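Bumping with the actual sequence this time:
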Amino acid sequence: MRLPLLHGSTDGPLLAAWTLDPLLVNLLALTAICYGIGLRSIHRKGRPVSGWRAASFFGGLAVVAFSLIGPLETWNDDLFFIHMLQHLALMIVAAPLLLLGRPVQIALQALPSGYSRAIVGSVFRRSRARRVATVLTHPLTVFLAFNLNLALWHLPGMYVRALENDLVHEIEHFAFFGTSLLFWWVIVDPVPRHHRAPAHWLFGMCFGTCMIGGLVAAALTVANRVLYPYYLSADQPWGLTPLADQKLGGGIMWISGAVYFALMFAMLYQMVKPDDGEPQRRAAAQVATPRTDRSPV
């Protein structure tokens, strides 16, 4: 439910078009408050969190707000490329930023140790719960969920249905954001840590996702007709034609997705490649360390 008097309008500047959704505003505010309380609690326990992690989490919340109650939400009914920017912001910016803030770990550390152990134990000491968690966080499951969701919601029937029905539109956002959190959860910092995917799976997930996203974007970019009839009757600000708007949206999805996942691929490679200088450092350390074993050879 949105307050009509505070509903964003596309009549003014882009950055001024904000929509007040009380449920979402309260949810974001409550999340920020709970995270702040958790930070303060573990700081008192002598285990402060790095400042960049806290900034990452609050930055992720800001991106969610900008996407779902800000200009991207207000303008997505009129411009296809704005809708693409909204999806990309949620999927490849907000989701990893939130997870880099380690919200689950902070919540568990902020609780009394007895409660934390009870919560973790009640979930992961049960064989059925462990099996479910293992299946849900398996790289193949995550890869399929993320990319099937991406492809299905860009089918013309599904996409237009989401634009015409508010409930379906909210489900679409939930699906995009939920599968993105699961995708980045496996890569960034899963709980428990033994659910971290092996390096070769991470490479495969990023490469395959880049390819599938590129195919969807290419279909939008090279099409010689408007694939989503909804935009034929929508207001077209800034003099964009529906077809030009579609090609722009596809191009943004293509370039930004490819660049982002290429950077992720490079970062993963840096994480797992062998360090050529490590053997020399170990040898030097052994030479520099005095022997404490005086027994004869």
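The tokens above came from a reply further down the thread. The mean pLDDT is 80.
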